[in-house]
Amino acid sequence: MCLNISPVKSFILKLQYFVKMSDFKKNLREELDYQGLTVKELSAKTRIAKRTLDCYLRSRASMPPVDAALRIAEALGVSVEYLVTGHDSRAKPLSPANPSIRLVLQILEELDDGGRETVLGLARVLKKQIDTKRAARKR
Predict the structure, then answer these.
(1) CATH code where residue 56 lies
(2) Is 94 within 8 Å of 76 (Cβ atoms)?
(3) Are 126 and 66 contained in the same domain?
(4) What is the pTM of this model?
(5) For each successive 10 residues of the chain (139 residues), what is the average pLDDT?
(6) Which residues 6+ apart lie within 8 Å of 83 measured at CB?
(7) H, E, C per residue of 45-86
(8) Structural domain for 129, as ranges
(9) What pLDDT is recorded for position 94?
(10) Does 99 lie in the same domain as 63?
(11) What pLDDT is attached to residue 17?
(12) Buried-exposed string 116-134: b where 16+ CB fall within 10 A, e elsewhere
């Protein structure tokens, strides 16, 4: 039996696949950066070849098969849903007791991607300064 799919529907299905693939690549890269992991380290954790993982992260990325996506998600401590969509329906929203932290989170949620990247860059600089001071005190 041969399925007859219209060219428009075929195009939409390909576009949906490309968007999901693009999201997977972006979310995987962001999670690796967030956790400070290299592709080589992820490869060791998942027992998926580094070259294969590199393929998932390239500009012309391919979507991993389900078993590989499960191993990647498990190694990173996230769900496959998160890697594909950027959201995790199982995740509980953060509700810190500290009002300052709640305010920062509220502001971050209201920013666009560029604003969040700016704040994240600033936070990384501040953290690096704190880490440097702590290291100097230990000497």
Answers:
(1) 1.10.260.40
(2) no
(3) no
(4) 0.56
(5) 58 52 82 90 96 86 84 92 80 68 85 89 88 84
(6) 24, 27, 28, 31, 69, 72, 73, 76
(7) HHCCCHHHHHHHHCCCCCCCCHHHHHHHHHHHCCCHHHHHHC
(8) 92-139
(9) 59
(10) no
(11) 47
(12) eeeeeeeeeeeeeeeeeee
